[in-house]
Amino acid sequence: MFLKKIFLKNFRNYAREEVQFKEGINIFFGENAQGKTNLLESIYLLSMGKSYRAYRDQELVKWQEKEFTIKAIGEREKRTLTIEVSFSLEGKKIIRINEQEQKRVSSLLGLFNAVIFAPSDLQLIQGAPGERRKFLDLEISQVSPKYHYDLQQYYRSLQQRNNLLKSIREKKQNLDLLSIWDEQITDLGSKIIKKRIECLKKLAILAKLMHRKITAQGETLELKYLSSLDVVEEKIKEEQEIKDIFKHKLEKIREEEIYRGVTLAGPHRDDFSSAINGVDVKTFGSQGQQRTAVLSLKLAELEFIKSEGGEYPLLLLDDVMSELDKERREHLLKVVRNRIQTFITTTNLKDFPEEFLQEANLAQVRKGKIEG
């Protein structure tokens, strides 16, 4: 997977800019608030169809402009690929792949896979369960469009079920109607949970290997899926088993759900834990251990996408070098060097070895202009 160049028009602080990339390491340096992160955001948007920073596409349009355009040319499986995403403040979003307009934003998934690593990713360990669910869902969606579709359908059904629960609580709807939505969410939810468990098992093996290398065999990282359905991952084999457990759980908590007007069990309530040498990292891990666990997860994510899709994804490192100590920086650079097309932002080139800088494509970012 190789991104050759990108064209930006009225995206964030870029008025009109075209950038060419090297196959290896591309480093963008400069002061803060000049547009370095915006560049990585545009690459990520081509991969996932949405920003990893902004909630609404309107936030991405340059001040006093009406629309933005991002266009990129790259190579996937030795075939040229052109992707274009444009958005107007009227709310219209247009996706074109090889000049052909697409009906769905999800058409982008799996074309230019990307992994983003930013300082905020420490929330993968420290943050709420939603952060870890998002991590899993984005990762799996890049290699499984079917999973992404099921996930969208699940959340639509979940919203309908929650609305019905509120109406039943207020005596506006009949309890019998709930069985329709129970069938919907247990059918979709069982598929989602099974896929998550399968992928987390693979990710756990890769993350354990990465963590052992980073810590010179001194620590062992373990990941475990935590289900709100009391599903024991080691014993689950079929979707139907999960679906039956899900249905039983909903029957058990029905009165409480009606009272609260919300669905209290399902994949939208699940989580995964991380432990180092048997000790929970979130609660008892040092900040250094938490950073190492996140780094191991991100490196494992690269290998997971490679194993599922056949090619390494693009790696976006948004000002993370200053967050890692010398040993972890060296390990990260060793992993990506000559293997993965990588895009790095930094305010300080001194965070990199001189020989690494000599091999990289260096460009300075200043007030929405890229020089180099």
Name the average pLDDT.
93
**Strand composition percent:** 15-25%
- The CATH superfamily of the largest domain is known as RecF/RecN/SMC, N-terminal domain
Query: In terms of structural class, how would the helical and strand content be classed?
Result: alpha/beta
How many helices? 11
Task: Indicate the multimeric state.
Answer: single chain
Count of separate structural domains: 2
Structure description:
There is one protein chain. With 372 residues, the chain is an alpha/beta fold. The chain folds into 2 domains: 1-113 and 313-372, P-loop containing nucleotide triphosphate hydrolases (Rossmann fold), CATH 3.40.50; 123-310, Up-down Bundle (Glutathione S-transferase Yfyf (Class Pi), Chain A, domain 2), CATH 1.20.1050.90. The chain has 11 helices and 15 strands. The chain has a 6-stranded antiparallel beta sheet with strand order 2-1-4-5-6-7, with helices on one face. Strand 12, helix 10 (326-336) and strand 13 (342-346) form a beta-alpha-beta unit. The chain starts with a strand and ends with a strand. The mean pLDDT is 93.
